[in-house]
Amino acid sequence: MADTKREIERKYEADAEARATGETPLPDLTRVAGVSSVPDKGVAELDAVYYDTHDLRLAADSITLRRRTGGDDAGWHLKLPVSPDVRDEIRAPLADAIPRSLAGLIRSRTRDDLVVPVVRLLSSRDVRHLLDARGELLAEVSVDSVTAERLDGDGGTARWTEIEVELADGGDPAFLDAVEKRLRKAGVRRASSASKLARALADTAPGPKPEKEKKQRKTAPDTAGDHVLAYLREQVDAIVAYDPAVRRDLPDSVHQLRVATRRLRSALRTYKKVLDRTVTDPIAEELKWLAGELGVDRDHEVLNDRLQTRIAALPRPLLLGPVRGRLRSVSRRTGSRRKSIAVLDSRRHLDLLTTLHALLADPPLLPAAARPAAKLIPKAVLRDYARLAARVEHALSVPPGHDRDLAMHEARKAAKRARYAAEAACPALGKPAKRFAKRMKAVQTVLGDHQDSVVARDALRNLAVQAHAAGETAFTWGLMYGQEEADAAARERELPEVWERASRQELRADLRAV
Predict the structure, then answer these.
(1) Model pTM?
(2) Least confident among 11-15, 191-195, 302-306, 318-322
(3) Percent of the chain with pLDDT over 70
(4) CATH code assigned to 3-203
(5) What is the pLDDT of residue 333?
(6) What is the CATH number of domain 224-512?
(7) What are the extents of the domains in the chain?
(8) Which of 49, 340, 391, 415 is the most exposed place for a label (fewest CB within 10 A)?
């Protein structure tokens, strides 16, 4: 069984003068505000082997997987970046092979490739605790003397000394600023590498050490193909990143993974002049499958929350019969996380990930991809707008009822695609695309709220039928049905005004004028 620890730490190294003397100074840290004592906790000898693919895919995403012995936390450790200086460390007991619980969390990156030992780090860790006046731990400071050995080729060895400062659980990150200020006065600076592994890989790389290149200013992509591929890469990266988040059952992770698949699928359809659809259409279908598989329980959860909110807003005298109990009986989670993980572990999903990476590595660009982005991309966005306009006008022309509900649902899907197209165009077109996307989102919101009401009414009708069959009163379900019907009618009245703002000629003219 794996457990997770949020790790907030900073790494430091001595400046050039201190390194020349072979010492990494550790100043008197009792002079840091709030620190009362700095007891010496002794020296631990740590032996860690780091694992990665042959092309160092995990390291490229600032992920580390290691098997470590020695110290008080021997075992397997997987570290996933959260933000600068913050990582989630997922731990599993010591074993010979990579634990399945950790292997699953890296599968979206490793896929079918072997994960092998790449670096061994031997560290002599001199540990001190920073305690407040009550003896509570504020942070742990360690001076690590490290020896690195490359295991995946003809690389060499490297040695260095660094300081780590790790915040205690629940501590205030501002405390690390105070410690850093004291360290800087003693000639200690932030480490040039984000992790020991990153430094070890750089210092033990086979062949001569490359000279540090001067940072060159990145030039913005010029062609439509450049812009579209950059957007596709963002969505593929999001799919890969949210895969382990779904496995960990992190909040909103399923929703965000589905959004990335939808954005990617939409882009493949919108920019059909850039990418060959004979190649991308099958990929789009697989993305549709993935979003659908992950969405069943998510959609059910959203519906349940909507109905629970309605029930909570009703006065008690209007809650007739076992309303809450009946809703609970049909709203229990049915192993959604287990099913989601099964989808992510499936051969079909892994094949999709492989296909997506192959698409980015060798994109099926059409001749139009070489055209300037400002010429081609506005036309793609406006094609999606034209589709939306036709569907909105049709929905507004249909009398209220089932047919209008269907027409508004189709318009909602077109609004989402037009919004995604505009958002993808923002790097190329700037503010005009942002304004356009904002208007498309407003239309999508109205249509989405309407569709949520349609789905809720279907569910309420079924609940009323079940209640009646069980000999219960269906009054409350009918009351809620009426509320949803009124909400839907309000959205239908709202749509013409929202659409008028979204369909103004100047919004489209601004896109063309970029």
Answers:
(1) 0.88
(2) 11-15
(3) 93
(4) 2.40.320.10
(5) 52
(6) 1.40.20.10
(7) 3-203, 224-512
(8) 49
